[in-house]
Amino acid sequence: MVQFSDIASELERQAIELPSWAFGNSGTRFRVFGTPGTPRTPEEKIADAAQVNAYTGLAPKVAIHIPWDKVDDYAALRSYANDLGVDLGTVNSNTFQDEAYKFGSLSSGEASVRRKAIDHHLECIEIMHQTGSRDLKIWLADGTNYPGQGDIRSRQDWLAESLREIYDALGDEQRLVLEYKFFEPAFYHTDVPDWGTSYAHVTALGPKAFTCLDTGHHAPGTNIEFIVAQLLRLGKLGSFDFNSRFYADDDLIVGSADPFQLFRILYEVVRGGGYDVDSPVAFMLDQCHNIEEKIVGQLRSVLNVQEMTARALLVDRAALLEAQNANDVLGANAILMDAFYTDVRPDLAAWRESRELPADPIAAFKASGYQEKIVAERAGGVQAGWGA
Ligand code: LRH
Ligand code: MN
Ligand code: MN
Fold first, then answer.
1. 62: nearest Cα among 41, 38, 42, 46
2. Taking the model in full, what pTM does it have?
3. Is 268 in the pocket of ligand 1 (CB under 6 A)?
4. Cα dist. 209→79, 167, 266, 310 in Å?
5. Quick one: which ligand is closest to 65's CA?
6. SS3 state at 323
7. Whose CA is nearest to atom 3 of ligand 1?
8. Global ipTM
9. How far is the CA of 285 from the centre of ligand 2 (A)?
10. Cα(first)–Cα(last) distance of the chain, in Å?
11. Residue 388 pLDDT > 90, yes or no?
12. Residue 383: left if φ>0, alpha if ψ -120 to 50, beta else—which one?
């Protein structure tokens, strides 16, 4: 049996990047509900994110989104973040809210549209030099709604050409991560629908290009941990966008819809070296808190990832291997399930206290008065939202 004390030191290096947009207002196509205290500026989003790190020690970076987090001086934004104990992380591009991209962006059939989309990414790379960010994350809304609408084969070639130009502009320490999603907003075909398509493109690009796996971007029933194992095996898993889903791209709190799936994913991460000290895998959240409190929602999320990482580390891998080699089907399964069913919360609480963190970060945050303070201070301002 592996004990908590055997794995505790491995928890120290856990780092989960928070998305700035999780702190802004968001909603569905039906309604965006406002929440009192919601940030009005990129700085206020970063200040809220810094709270999550202060109470958990788990979230040292904030991912930004261009143009949602557009500012005049990115170096100043970075030092603002640093003063609050966090750093800026992944830069997310946006080619899905401009009229010009109605029929696609990097895979559009129109050269002038592709040019505009490529230039946006070149601007993101410039910003990354100022923010010190390593990763440029590309998620494309590109696709078609009706069979015959576009030449799906040519669009792959245009996409490859566009990505090549972006890739070639990366600095030595910078990386490109290409996210896939099987549908939405396009409903017939999507230009980067699956891990295989992303893998084909990033492999063609070179060693600084990787795949981003968003856990909400698969068809129901997909064995996501298998994709994790395969991408790690191929050396191309660059990052995770964690969230959970009941139906489609729900962007709910990671580990809330299916904690067992999160465990299985994290077990493959650990098994495949994705949690090793020198791992190239970046762990991020990509969530929206439409109706729940946003800072508490982010606290809950990083704690869920921490709890499930601890359980994944608790798997007795030597015993599991032995059972697997002996074709002991149920014995092997029991070893995995033993770790999954281990309640690590009391051990984690004690471990946090030993590191001068609150045993219960959510209770400590709620008692701090921060939420009441921002509700009072930010009253009457225009709140930032998904897309603002
Ligand atoms: C759209 C999406 C995608 C991106 C994010 C900014 O599906 O959720 O996952 O990462 O918007
Ligand atoms: Mn995502
Ligand atoms: Mn998504």
1. 46
2. 0.97
3. no
4. 28, 8, 22, 29
5. 1
6. helix
7. 139
8. 0.96
9. 8
10. 50
11. no
12. beta
